Amino acid sequence: MHNLSTNQSQRTTSTSKTSHLHLNVTGIVQGVGFRPFVYKLAKKLDLTGSVANTGHGVTIHISGSTADIDSFVDKLKTDPPPLARISEIQFTAEQETEFADDFTIAISNDSEIKTTLISPDIATCKECINDISSPENHRFHYPFTNCTNCGPRVTIIRGVPYDRPKTSMAVFPMCASCMKEYHDPSDRRFHAQPNACPMCGPALSWHDNQGAVISDINEDCLKGCARALQKGSIVAIKGLGGFHLAVDACSNNAVQRLRENKHRYSKPLAVMVADLTTAERICLLNGKERELLLSRERPIVLVLKKQSCLSDKLSPRIREIGIMLAYTPLHHLLFDMEECPEILVMTSGNLSGEPICTDNSEALQKLANIADYFLLHNRDIVTRVDDSVVRVVRGRLQMIRRSRGYAPIPFSIPGIKKTVLACGAEQKNTFCLSRNGLLFLSQHIGDLKGPANIDFFEESLDYMKSILDVSPELIACDLHPDYLSSRHAAASSLPGLNVQHHHAHAAAIMAEHNLSEGLAVIFDGAGLGDDGTVWGGEILHVEGTSYERVGHLAPLMLPGGDRATHEIWRMGLAYLSAGGFDISKLTALPSTLQDIPADSLPGIAMIMEKKINTPLTSSVGRLFDAVSSLLGIRQEVDFEGQAAMELETLAWTAYESKDSMPDGDRYTGTIVWKNGQWQLDLRPLLPWLLADLKKGTPVAAIALFFHLWLVRSTHKALLQLFAKRYPTQTIMLGGGCFQNRMLLEFLAERLEENGYSVYTGEQVPVNDGGVSLGQACIALRQTEHPAQRPNQTNF
Amino acid sequence: MEKYIILDHGSGGLASQNLIGSLFLKYLKNSVLNQLEDAAVLPPEHGQIAFSTDSYVVDPVFFPGGNIGELAVNGTINDLAMRGARPICLSLGLILEEGFAVDELEKIIKSIANACDYAGVPVVTGDTKVVPRGKADKIFINTSGIGIVEENININASQAQPGDIILLSGTLADHGITILTSREGLQVDANLLSDTRPLHFLAQAIVKDFPGAIHTMRDPTRGGLGTTLSEIAKTTKLCMEIEENSIPMHAEVRAACELMGLDPLYLANEGKCMVLAAPEYAEEILHRMRSVPEGRDTAIIGRVSEKHAGRVVLTTVAGGRRLVEPLSGEPLPRIC
Ligand SMILES: [Fe+3]
Ligand SMILES: [Mg+2]
Ligand SMILES: [Zn+2]
Ligand SMILES: [Zn+2]
C-alpha cells in the first residue's frame, strides 16, 4: 500500500510527436495552487491551452512544440506545488483542434463525477507569517491570513469541486484587493479559496462566558485573550477544526482549575508554543521530532519532558508530554502579544465523552462552565478535525491519533475496485471508506458510546460519502456484536463481514507495509476472539486474508468484566488468585494492595470461584494493569493505559540508572504448548515479583524486570514458532500496547538482531484507530480473492 | 398422597384427579374453576379485550422474596396492566418434573392462591402435565390472562411524545440480582429480595385519574430497563434521556452490581413499571403513583426528547453521557 505522501505518477500513453496533449491529473490537486502552477509553467514554456478543475481532479489541454510539452510534463511530475499529491496523470494525444493563442484558467465544472481528493488543513506558511508580522502589510495582525500554500481546507469545504462558493468562506465576498490577488495567476493567493483580508474576511470577537461581546476589534480581542491567559483564566479559543481550551501551562493553579472544570483529572494535556526554541526549553528533541514539529501538518508530538517551568499537573507520573507549534495566524498573533504566556495548554474544547465543539453557540453553551472567556470568530467550521498526535519511535513516525493535517489523505491498494465501508472499533473509532483502490481513513471520531460521538460518526460518514461520491457495496465491522460500530453495520442491508479485532490490527500493518504473510504479535486491550473468549495477547500467523491463532498469553480472569479495566486492583487479585493465593483476606495480600477496599475481597473471591461475570482474557493490557496493581503503582485508572504508562515511565527510570539490571536476568518466561498453541505461562512471574517486592527491590527496577520478562518471553516464543512451524522472515508488532516504547524498541531490536524484518504501524495507528483500515483491507481482498480457509462469518 | 410427583399425576386418571382435588381446588377454588369443564365460560364485559400469555421457568423455583408461583400470576397480570387493562381472569398450566416434591408444589400453589386473592384475579382454567425426570427442571408454569380495556384507552409505545416524562415505579434490578445471587449461592447480602408484585392497581389508578395523559407503560422484566427503553426509542424514533442519579435503587443491589460488574439497567424487574406520561401532570402523576403501595418509591427518571433519534442516553453520576443499547446476549467485555 502506498501513502500518497510521495508524489507518484504514471504515464499511461506516451507523448508522440504531436503538439497537442490532454492531461487528466488526479490526486490532491485542488486548493493547493495547482492551476496557477500549471499556468505559470505553461506561460514560461510558451505553451497555449487551458487548465480547469473538474470533479475528477485537474484537466489540462496544451499545445506547443513537442520538446516544450515534454519539459512541461517532466516539471509537472518532478516538481509539483508543495501541497499537491498526484496519484495519477493520464495522457491523451489530441487531434489538432482550434489553436488557442493564449493559456487560460477555465472555470470549474461541477457536473461531472466527483472523484477529486480533498487536502487536509495546512499550517500557516512562512510568507503568510511575514505578511501578518509586517506593519506595512495590509494583513498586518490579521488572524485569517492564508494563501494557496497554507490555511484551512477540509475544515471549511462543504462540497466539491473545491471553490469558494462551496466553502464556509462563501459568506465573505472578497474586496477589490483580495479579488485582484485571487484572479492574478502570478499572485501567491491566486484562487486561494479562503483568501481574505481585514477589509472583507472573517473577524474575531471576544466574549465573557455568558456570551456577551467584550470586543469585536481583532487587535483588542487578541490583547484581551493574552491578558486573560496571563492572569490564569481559562479561554475557549475557536481554532481550525474545533475549539481549544487554553490556559497558561506554567501555572499550577490555572491547570488545576482547567482539570477540575473539565472533569479531566489526570489525562495528559497537550501544550502549544510559538517556535522550536521555546519547545527545546521544555522538552528533549531529536532531529525527527523537530522535523515533525515544524512539518506543515503540525501534529502534537509526544516527546520527553525536561525540567522546566511547566506545571507538573500536565502529564503527572508520565515522562512524555504532547507539544505542538502554533499553526494558524491566530496562534502566531496570540503568542506575539506581550502579555501572552509562552507556553499554553491547548486541550480539546469538549465535554468529557463528546467530540470537540465547532459551533460558536454550541461552544458558548457547553463550555460556559469550563471557560472564563471565549475567543470566537465568524468563519464556520464545516468538518470537525481534532489535533493529530504522533511520536517518534525507533527513528520513525508512530501515529497515535490521525486527524488534522493527515486525514483525509488516502492510502492506496492499487487494483481493488470495490467500495467498502469498514466501521472500525468502538473506542478511538475511525471508519474507512474505499474508492477505486484508495482507502480513506476518517479523522479520529472517538468513543462511540458517547451519544454526540455516534452523531459525529454518522455526520462524518455522510460527509465523506458525499465528498467522495461513493456508496459502499459491502460493509465490514468487528466481531464484537455490541460495539456501536458493529451495530451500525448490522443495521445495513449491504453484504457484511465481521473481522476479528486482532486480525484487523494485523491487517492494518500488512496494508501499510505491503505484506502478504507473517507472524503478527498483537498486544492489546480486549477484543472478542473467534472462540468467544476475550483476546488481547496474541500471536497470529497471517497469510492473505486468513489467520491462525498460534500463540497467546495464558488467560487471567477479568473479575467484573469491563469494571476490571477501571478498578485494576481486580486484575491484581485475579493474578494472585491464578497464582494460588487466598485473596479473601487482606492480610494475605502483599502490602502494596493495602489501599484496595477490604470489604470487596470476599466478594471478588466469591465471583471468581463461582465464575460470575469473570470472563477469561489473554489481554496484555490487563496484565500490565495486574502488575501495576501488585506493584502498588495505582489501584484505579482514570483513563485507558494510565497504569501502563506510569509503569513504563518507572521502567525507563530504572533502565537509565543502569544499576538494577543483573537481578532481572532470572525473569524469563515459561512457554508451554497447549492444544497446539503456544501459551506464555504467567504463574512463574508472580513469585518473582512478590519476592522482589518483599526484598525491597525498588519498584522501578521491578517495573523494568517485568518489561524485560515480557520482551524475552515473546522473543523466545517467536523463535520457537519460527523453528517449529512458521519459517517466515516477517514479524508484525501491533495493538495498543505497542504504544509502549520500551516494549516495541526492545522486542524489535532483539528480533532484528536475529535477522527478522519487523514492521509496526507508522502512518496507521497501532491502536484501535487503525482497526477500520485493517477491516477494509480484509473485506476488499477477500471479495476479490476469497480465502481458502475463511475465518470470518457473514452476518 | 405421594411425597413426590410421579408420572401418573399427569395421566388424567385417578392420580391426576387426586392432585387436582387435594391441591388445586383446595387453594384456587372459585365458581368457574370448580366446574372442571373443558373451558371456562365468562360473563360478558364492556370494552376491549386484552389477552396475554407468559411462561415461567425461573431457577431457583424458590428465591428470596417469592417463588415461581406468584411470579407467574403477577407476571401475566402485569403484562395486561401495562396496556391499561383491568385483569379479570387467568389460566394456569403446569409442567412438572417427575420427582418434584409435592410439599414444594403445595407451597407454590398456595402462593399462587395468595397472589390471586391479593390481585383479585381468579384462575378459571388450568392444566397439569408431568414429564419424566430430566425432561423439565422441577416445575414450569404458563399463565395466560384476559383483561378489559376501556373503550377510549390506547396505551402503547407509539403514543410516546417528545417532552414526556419517564417515571419508574420503584427500585431497579431487585429481581435480577436476587435470582442471580441465589442461583449461584452467593452470600452477598441478606437484604436482597425479588420485587414480584402485581401492578394493575397502580396502572389502573393513573390510567383512570389522568385520562389521555398516560402514553406508554412497560414492565421492564427480562433485559431490564435499558432494553425496554431501547425498544420504545426504536419504535418511536424518539430519544429516551435518563439520569442515573434519579433512578431509585436499593444500596445493597447497587453494591452487588458493582461487585459483579453488572449494569443494573440490564437486570430484570418483576414488579416495576415504567410510565411515559404528559409532562403537564408530572407532579400529580408522581404523587398518585406514590400513593399506591406498589408505587411508593416512584421517581421521575428522565424525559423523552428528539435529540438522538431512536437512542437511549444515560447521564451518569459523574455527569458524562453514554448510550444504552440492548445487548446481543450476555455482556461481553469491550474495552480495548
Ligand atoms: Fe484493539
Ligand atoms: Mg409476557
Ligand atoms: Zn500562506
Ligand atoms: Zn479583502
UniProtKB/TrEMBL annotation, chain A:
Functional pathway: Protein modification; [NiFe] hydrogenase maturation
UniProt keyword list: Hydrolase, Ligase, Metal-binding, Zinc, Zinc-finger
Domain Acylphosphatase-like positions: 20-107
Signal peptide from the UniProt entry: none
UniProt superkingdom: Bacteria
Record field: catalytic activity: an acyl phosphate + H2O = a carboxylate + phosphate + H(+); C-terminal L-cysteinyl-[HypE protein] + carbamoyl phosphate + ATP + H2O = C-terminal S-carboxamide-L-cysteinyl-[HypE protein] + AMP + phosphate + diphosphate + H(+)
EC number of this enzyme: 6.2.-.-
Annotated Pfam families: Acylphosphatase, HypF_C, HypF_C_2, Sua5_yciO_yrdC, zf-HYPF
InterPro entries: Acylphosphatase-like_dom, Acylphosphatase-like_dom_sf, Acylphosphatase_CS, Carbamoyltrans_HypF-like, Carbamoyltransferase_HypF, DHBP_synth_RibB-like_a/b_dom, HypF_C, HypF_C_2
Active site per database record: 35, 53
Every YrdC-like domain range: 219-405
Keyword Transcription in record: no
Homology family: Belongs to the carbamoyltransferase HypF family.
Protein name: Carbamoyltransferase
Automatic annotation (TrEMBL), chain B:
The protein's name in its UniProt record: Hydrogenase expression/formation protein HypE
Membrane-traversing stretches: none
Domain PurM-like C-terminal: 161-313
Family: Belongs to the HypE family.
Upper classification of the organism: Bacteria, Pseudomonadati, Thermodesulfobacteriota, Desulfobulbia, Desulfobulbales
Gene: hypE
Gene3D superfamilies per record: PurM-like C-terminal domain (3.90.650.10), PurM-like, N-terminal domain (3.30.1330.10)
Organism: Desulfotalea psychrophila
All residue ranges annotated as the PurM-like N-terminal domain in the record: 37-149
Annotated CDD domains: HypE
One Pfam family of this chain: AIRS
